[in-house]
Hints:
This protein is α+β, with helices and mostly antiparallel strands.
Amino acid sequence: MMNNIVEIFEKIYCRPMQVHCFAPGRVNLIGEHTDYNGGHVFPCAINLGIECVAAKRNNMKLRFYSTNFADAGVIEASLDALSYDGAWSDYPKSVIHTFRQFGYEIPYGADFVFSGNLPDGAGLSSSAALEVLTGLVLKELFNIPVTGQELAVFGQFAENHFIGVSCGIMDQFASAMGRAGYAILLDTNILDFEYAPVSDDDATLVIVNSNVKHSLASSAYNDRRHECEAALAALKNELKVSSLCALTPAQFEEHRHLITDDICKKRARHAIYENARTIDAAKALKAGDLSRFGTLMNESHISLRDDYEVSCAELDFLAETAWNIKGVYGARMTGGGFGGCTVNLVKNSCVETFMNKISAAYKERFSREAYVFAVKIADGAHRIKA
């Protein structure tokens, strides 16, 4: 349990909690910036995330406290006046607002305490975990009949329309629908999905946090989305196509001349080829071909670096260094980009050596530490029984 969160709740609010829930972060194995382009993604939930304990009130007041933002103290709001304030509490507020917009009754306020062990700004989806977690807490507190998939959809809606980040569905879906030992191949266009087993008998997922913090809201994330929309609009002048990822690489090559803006053409090329890589990667994993899977991870990073231009010097260094360390099947940046983490698929027998080498190389190059840790693939959001 993180920071004895139940005891913290009782100390702050001087009453017992009613609900205790957890939502995980995620790492995307491959399929980056395809989710809002109607393509496939391949994330998994991890054994790091956020806990929340909460209890209903008998009035309209909302109170939020996070051990991760303890200096902010208890933040108060009202169900009658939910607004964006630029604080961390905007995320749970956004979900409460979304539930009410979708017609679910939340008749009373509540007290919340959150505590997480996801590195902030690392690209492991702390914001999506917080959104899904808030939705699950509301479900449990007020007996709201929503599914895990709906929690994901509401979380995405909240971030798009309340927070103002044009994210896709992947992060929330992985947090809500994760399954221990499995990655999720998700068709974001129609929300069809299947679980693919990821055996830990041969390899381990190792995350390397560059400690370069990013903020999607203030980065070029929205710019990339607009560039993709412009590319799609250009293709639609002659093609009946609903999304970029509805095209195969061959179809893109045949019609790429329709996109006259070179930047938009590069963005489209990444999305379309990345979608194909993701489908191939899931097949490789199912077949137990870790070498092929790793090669596709490497190709994904190169495309994100060169065509989508969402990497940075630190992430490039980490990926390229990993490619030359013995026992590494593949390595790539993961998440929105502009900082955050790389995900590395490493032979079990080589994990310790890899962690030592990548840490030393990064410190020598950038004169600061990288946070290197192995993760396990975990279950999605769930209630913790007392």
